[in-house]
Write a structure and sequence with these properties.
Chain A is an alpha/beta fold. Chain A has 8 helices and 12 strands. Chain A has one domain: Rossmann fold (3-Layer(aba) Sandwich). Chain B contains 22 helices and 10 strands. In chain B, a hairpin with a 4-residue loop joins strand 5 and strand 6.
């Protein structure tokens, strides 16, 4: 039935268009990269240029209520996360639980000893954790790693991967994303160029700040259905080994 | 709360004009977003962007069959399912079947105008399925038993006090008119729905043929919730909502978020290409894309109207239209309001049935100027009027008002003959005399003329026409004034 429907449906469109069978070539032409939009490639930027992009991102983050923290080391980043965890209260439950993506960059942060002091529990969203859903629903903070960040719009790109589910940046009240300076890009076009190079990619999200709504008399409120607050931690440590993906 | 359904265009427009809250909101909306979008287009670094993208839209539409096939193949390759629905009934039946098969009790909806167009809520409710809107504005409108009155700001016709009373009643919270408190109350209530629903039902902003993915945008995060937490995700896609390449998608996305809300990018832009994969701890077990025609192929077939399928539903035309800006969205009697609604609603649901829409617009051209894809809506509104005046068997349009047509025929005769015209003037001047009020205007006519003076005064005919005055003043100089019409110049001479 489904195949029949598709044939009838597409035939109706063909009739509407009055196309013959010789249109295949023109459609392929349409898929070819066009000169004026074709992306010229991402320039090889030095550290100084990356820092300039970071500055631009921070300027754009303000109006979006996205808080940016610049950290020089993994220890500093871990302290930053711990401070946010200490200072904020769970919105829905009473226990302080955190979910964190299963990602090498995040696993390198010495979080556990810092959070244990405040009896904050950490759950990793690894593929073999059968309780990710329950942990995520209970958590008040979700920590993720961003594949890239876009300076012109203060946006992070998050790719869905095994151990890196989409709900971590969505269901907890606070979202903390961690980014390495090397993964800053200037524009949405640059980010798309990187996205399109990812093989076999079917789920990703671009996030620009905390969830928001202006549906009641146009009055802007942070925290509609997603996180009420969002933090971006940018690690600007000089890479010891090349950790660029 | 009244629903918009049974009211006529005139009645709903009157109601909108009499709603002070709506008037205030519309003024604010138009001052900020309408003008803002125009300014955004002026400051685009690439001034050819809009026309270039429009051309791409039209080229893609010209290959719509191939584009849709490629999109469907891409999604199926990832284990998603695609259903092509020719009619609203077919789409509804498919989703109903799916809900029955999977024993779905609760559906959470992300904002989708197509879902309102095909009336899927009622279809699901008939099976006892609970359908919950999750966009805050749509949720408010659903609780109020009302209808959305703006594409992007659904409850713009309600003020915070009304919403406060509504929430006090439905969410059992103490009355408040504080937007953050109200938003938090809805957040809490809807979170339970979002975390426990069996099916997420969303629209689709763009389907991309090249990559076999759909893109969904939202600021609230409700659409991400609805596509992540329930075990089923069903996306409804109008068949024209397709782009060829990822590059096209990116540029349209930028135009959409600028046109809709003056944002560089919406808070969340999600790409969905199929169900959850192995190793993904969340995401839906099944992903279904329902591609809907429901009258669109007929628009596609008509070169006069094909352009309207390039629309990306940003709502910018609502934010600039002087008519929408006064009467609000309910008068349009469809999920699609404003200038775009005045074109697309008659084409989808019957030109005669929605005859008032194209006649209510002013053809001022503001919507064409603000449209991110430069759709010539005024041209299409005029084309619809033409069909209503003369009928069009191709679109099953019958002449809308035979009496009006007869009057225009008679008028054509009268103005075609100097003698007839002058007799008409003399006659009308004599007849109008008792109707002219103290302000020098005709305040009220009777019979079929009564419609003219409903809600406005009519300027009476002048005591002498320009021609008559010309004759009086210049009768002796007739030979000298050929080719010039300016009276003053001749006075000097």
């Amino acid at each position: 039935m489904i195949k029949d429907n598709q044939t009838l449906f597409l035939n109706r469109i063909r009739a509407a268009l009055g196309n013959g069978n010789d249109q295949q070539d023109a459609w392929q032409d349409l898929l070819a990269p066009t000169d004026n939009t074709a992306f010229q490639g991402i320039p090889n930027r030095g550290r100084e240029e990356q820092l300039l992009l970071l500055r631009q991102l921070m300027d754009n983050a303000g109006p979006l209520h996205l808080t940016v923290h610049v950290c020089a080391s993994c220890d500093e980043a871990a302290n930053c996360i711990a401070a946010i965890s200490r200072d904020s209260k769970p919105e829905f439950g009473s226990t302080k639980e955190i979910v964190i993506h299963d990602h090498p960059l995040l696993q390198a942060l010495p979080l556990e000893p810092l959070l244990a002091k405040d009896s904050i529990v950490i759950h990793t969203t690894s593929s073999n954790n059968p309780e990710v859903r329950r942990h995520t629903t209970n958590a008040y903070i979700g920590v993720t790693s961003a594949a890239w960040a876009i300076a012109e719009s203060a946006t992070i790109v998050q790719l869905t991967r095994p151990g890196q589910p989409r709900s971590t940046s969505l269901v907890p009240s606070i979202h903390i994303a961690v980014l390495e300076l090397a993964n800053m890009v200037a524009t949405l076009a640059e980010a798309y160029a990187l996205i399109s190079q990812e093989p076999d990619l079917d789920s990703l999200v671009l996030i620009s700040g905390p969830s928001k709504t202006a549906d009641i008399e146009g009055s802007m409120v942070q925290g509609a259905h997603g996180p009420r607050a969002m933090h971006l931690i940018v690690l600007i440590a000089e890479p010891v080994a090349d950790s660029r993906a | 709360m009244k629903t918009s359904g049974p009211l006529s265009y005139n009645e709903a427009a009157q109601e909108g004009l009499a709603n002070p809250c709506l008037q205030r909101s519309l003024r604010g909306l138009q001052a900020h977003y309408g003008k803002g979008a125009l300014a955004a287009w002026r400051s685009l670094p690439d001034q050819t962007m809009r026309s270039r993208i429009k051309a791409r839209r039209m080229q893609t539409l010209a290959h719509l069959d191939q584009a849709l096939e490629q999109l469907a193949n891409g999604i199926r390759a990832r284990g998603g399912q695609v259903f092509f629905a020719t009619t609203a009934a077919e789409a509804n039946e498919y989703v109903r079947d799916l809900a029955r098969k999977h024993n779905v009790r609760r559906v959470v909806k992300g904002k989708s105008m197509l879902s309102a167009e095909i009336g899927i809520d009622a279809a699901l409710a008939a099976d006892g399925v609970e359908v919950v809107e999750t966009d805050l504005g749509e949720y408010i409108v659903q609780q109020a038993g009302s209808a959305a009155s703006h594409i992007i700001a659904p409850c713009i016709h309600m003020d915070r006090q009304q919403i406060g009373h509504l929430f006090a009643e439905h969410l059992h919270i103490p009355y408040t008119d504080d937007p953050p408190t109200l938003t938090r109350a809805a957040r809490k209530a809807l979170r339970q729905h979002l975390l426990t629903a069996d099916m997420g039902l969303t629209g689709c902003n763009f389907g991309c043929a090249e990559t076999g993915q759909i893109t969904l945008v939202s600021n609230e995060g409700n659409i991400r919730m609805a596509t992540t937490m329930p075990r089923l995700h069903v996306a409804l896609m109008g068949m024209e909502r397709i782009v060829a390449t990822l590059d096209d998608q990116r540029e349209l996305l930028q135009l959409l978020t600028q046109g809709a809300a003056l944002q560089k990018l919406s808070t969340y832009v999600s790409f969905v290409g199929g169900p959850s994969r192995e190793g993904d701890p969340d995401g839906p077990d099944e992903f279904h894309l329902v591609i809907v025609d429901n009258g669109r192929s007929r628009i596609l077939a008509d070169p006069e109207f094909r352009e309207v399928l390039a629309c990306i539903r940003c709502g910018a035309c609502l934010n600039i239209c002087p008519v929408y800006g006064r009467i609000g969205g309910h008068a349009y009697g469809s999920p699609y309001s404003g200038p775009i609604g005045a074109v697309v609603t008659p084409l989808l649901a019957g030109i005669n049935r929605h005859a008032d829409l194209c006649k209510g617009e002013t053809l001022c051209g503001a919507c064409r100027e603000v449209c991110p894809v430069a759709n010539d809506l005024p041209r299409m509104l005029a084309a619809l009027r033409h069909k209503l005046a003369y009928g069009d068997p191709g679109w099953q349009v019958r002449p809308h008002n035979r009496f009006e047509a007869l009057c225009f025929k008679a008028w054509q005769r009268i103005v075609g003959s100097k003698v007839c015209y002058e007799i008409f003037l003399k006659l009308f001047r004599a007849l109008q005399r008792p109707f002219i009020g103290p302000q020098g205007m005709i305040g009220r006519l009777y019979g079929f003329g009564g419609g003219w003076t409903e809600g406005r005064d009519l300027q009476p005919l002048a005591s002498s026409s320009f021609r008559e005055r010309w004759r009086g003043v210049h009768s002796k100089k007739r030979g000298n004034c050929a080719g010039s019409a300016a009276e003053g110049q001749h006075d000097k001479g």
